[in-house]
Specification:
With about 270 residues, the chain is mainly beta. The chain contains one helix and 25 strands.
């Protein structure tokens, strides 16, 4: 199995994926996936990291430092609407107790203070169409760069229709060379519709010292420590992914692969 591909554990309830800076051998991004049966709970606390919990499907009651944040989440699938999310600052204990079958993604990155915990409702989010033709995708920014309440986290979800490419033309953000390029680690949490499908992702550098092509299936996480990272769907299967990015500066500045930039002029 490629080292950048993380498969979920086959649990009825519990944490099915855990990507930490230690396990990924990097500095910034953490990304856990919890699958919860009704009545079951996930909980956590980060002393020097901020957290964004994204409700992938189902709903649950959220508390932060014992304060009820409400029952959030409503969509049955990532392909049936915009998400509910909650932001949690460092040194805060959180808990999610599922009211239905529930999948949440717990995204973390370094932070000193953060802000007070807050809920992000679907009504606050918009969907942007990027690209055209066979490079069309639909983007929903959950914690974009413009939202200054977060210190490190950038969180976005994308749906790529079947037969289309995404994160393409190939681009990278692995050098701290502002204003031209920012250094951002990145994870992709993948879902497929219908779920028995698959898609492809390649992660590679100009010198090809890193060059991995992965067949991604429903529920997988891929890690992008550096390099270009395009995705491609296959006929009949739409692809969803949740991106988590973080680095030394909270800004998304990327460079395209020179050999593919001609595609942007079409």
């Amino acid at each position: 199995m490629p080292k950048l591909l993380v498969k979920p554990k086959k649990l009825k309830s519990g944490r099915v994926i855990s990507v930490t800076p230690k396990s990924a051998k990097w500095k910034y991004v953490g990304h856990d996936v919890w699958k919860l049966a009704p009545g079951k709970s996930a909980k956590g606390m980060e002393t020097a990291r901020e957290t964004c919990i994204v409700f992938i499907s189902g709903k649950g009651a959220v508390t932060v430092n014992g304060k009820a944040m409400g029952v959030i989440g409503e969509r049955t699938s990532v392909f049936s609407g915009k998400p509910w999310s909650v932001y949690i600052p460092p040194k805060s204990k959180w808990q999610v107790t599922a009211e239905t079958d529930c999948v949440i993604n717990v995204c973390t990155a370094p932070a000193k203070k953060g802000t007070e915990a807050f809920v992000i409702s679907p009504d606050e989010l918009s969907i942007e169409t990027r690209g055209a033709g066979s490079n069309t995708r639909y983007v929903c920014n959950i914690l974009p760069e413009q939202d200054k309440r977060a210190e490190s986290l950038l969180v976005v979800e994308v749906i790529t229709p079947y037969g289309c490419t995404s994160s393409y033309p190939s681009h990278k953000h692995d050098k701290n060379n502002l204003p031209h390029e920012s250094l951002l680690e990145e994870t992709y949490y993948h879902r497929l519709n219908p779920p028995q499908g698959f898609a492809f992702q390649r992660v590679y550098t100009d010198d090809r010292k890193l060059d991995e092509a992965m067949a991604v299936e429903d529920g997988d996480i891929t890690m992008v420590p550096k390099g270009y990272h395009p995705c491609a769907t296959i006929h009949g299967y739409d692809l969803y992914y949740l991106n988590v990015m973080a680095g030394p500066v909270r800004t998304w500045k990327f460079n395209n692969a020179k050999e593919h930039e001609w595609l942007l002029k079409k």
